[in-house]
Amino acid sequence: MRPDEAPSAQRTERRWLPVVAVVAVIVFAADGANLVSRAIEGPPIDVAGVALHPRAGWAVQHRDDEATVHHLLLAGGSTALDVVVLDGYDGTAATLSEEYATRVLRGQLDRLTIGDPETGRLDSGTSTVRFGYVGITHDGLAVEGVVTTAVGRSGTGVVFDGYAPKGDLASAVGDLAAMIGSAEVP
Amino acid sequence: MAVEARPAQLFHRSLFQPREPAFWVYLVFLVYGVIRMTSALVELSEISRSGWTLSWLLLTVYALPVFVLIYRLDLYEREPISLAIGAFLWGAFAATALSLDAAGWDRVIAQAFGQDFAMRWGPALTASLTEEVLKGAGVVLIYLIARDELDDMMDGFVYGALCGLGFAVVEDVLYFMASFGGTPAGVLRGFYVRVLSSGLYGHVLYTGLTGMGIGYFVSRRQHESLGKRIFVAAGLFAVGVFGHMLWDSPLLNVGQDTAGVLAEPFLLALKGLPLLVFVLLAIRLSRDRERRWLDGALAREIGGDGISHDEYRTLRSPRLRRRAVADMRRRGGRAAAGLLKRLEREQVNLAMVASRVSAADDPALVRQRDLCRSLRDALAAMPGAAPAATDDPPAPATGEDRGG
């Protein structure tokens, strides 16, 4: 062993320690929110058998249940997620998306433009149909949104409509995708 | 002795230190930031090319003189330009990109305190802390890359303020394009509100304070206890965060909804002026401390080979230094003015060496005195330069001494 080996090792350690500490601080400041939010995350929300896992910062704003139609509104910042659950729906995800666009969106929004539908799947494997849209509310606010529909094996139809004032949706796309993807539809 | 000979410890270190682990960490985060922010900025340019170009043009016009002003704040020892630019780039790309990643903290606030509270207070509580931490981390990395270059509070302020300036520039472009519509008219409105009305109070000051704290912590090891250094550094960081928090909070939004465009700067000044006054006071105190340091360090040297009485009087005052260099340029040309500037720089280095050694005949100190003398001799030999080189008679020069 060279006589200077130990001090050299100490010097190397001294050069690395503060750097490791700075990296830890940077990573926690930039990404620690996910850890903390998972730690304080609440239980899943049940809407007529559909289980939803709200991301940190999303809270229930409104909820109502009629005979076969159940409605839940989640809000996170300026973005909202409307969840509509239909008991005993006898169509497909594609027909449900068409009906939602025609009966709901066209009634709520002026100058509605709808994108091409795309098929996909929830994390559980349930097939989905998704389309984007832009429009203007009756009080003049430009909004953009993404609708995802699915029909479960037991005939439960569900519509996820995530929307925000134009320009705000991009910041919530990750949360919307996570909440919709992890939903469990019976 | 040739004028090129310099004591080894006086070489300024650049940003490029591949042997330092901190350099690689800096580089990795910077590359990440450049990629993330470039894609975001390019995407925003699609809103309006002309608005996007105007944003950069206006911000360049604003940032360039501010950069020079901050860089020249340090009276006696200008920081290596690569480190100064490195601090700016960290703020512009790494800190902004990482701050975008840190947006999840708003959701944590909403989760803990509810949506309404988060909408009102989220930015004040989270952005102020995460952004200051992420910008301050850049100053710490700059210190870890080139430890010798951050040797007082003023150095810390310079690096911190440059980092804050870089952050402000890129953040402003994002705001102009995303929140002010991105059209040339929107960009002009954004420039008026975010830069002209409030540009003096923002990120430059917050991170300048953090940098001062870091400068104090690392440079006062031999003079102050660890507890006091932590207290001062944490205190300055807290003041910066508090100033930022106050700026983002709805607390002092007095009448801003109803104020006219002309009244807006005054209302914004209400929020930012106390912090501006605090920082100006801190800079003033720091400069006084720098002057006292120069006086103490050169006390034994004045009138010797390294520095004459007149040169010392000029060196102490930035105004007299500028005047002396301008005068030299007029009489002896650019080369002579450049040589005088180098002599002044080496005399500051003489103060640094004198403050680090205990013996008056320490070889490093003797070498630095010789270097100053040889520069003075070289200056005296230049046509037209001699009368202002020094009022004290210079030591006899040898041919070898005029090597520079």
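qc> Residues 1-10, 388-404 of chain B have pLDDT under 50 and may be disordered.
qc> done
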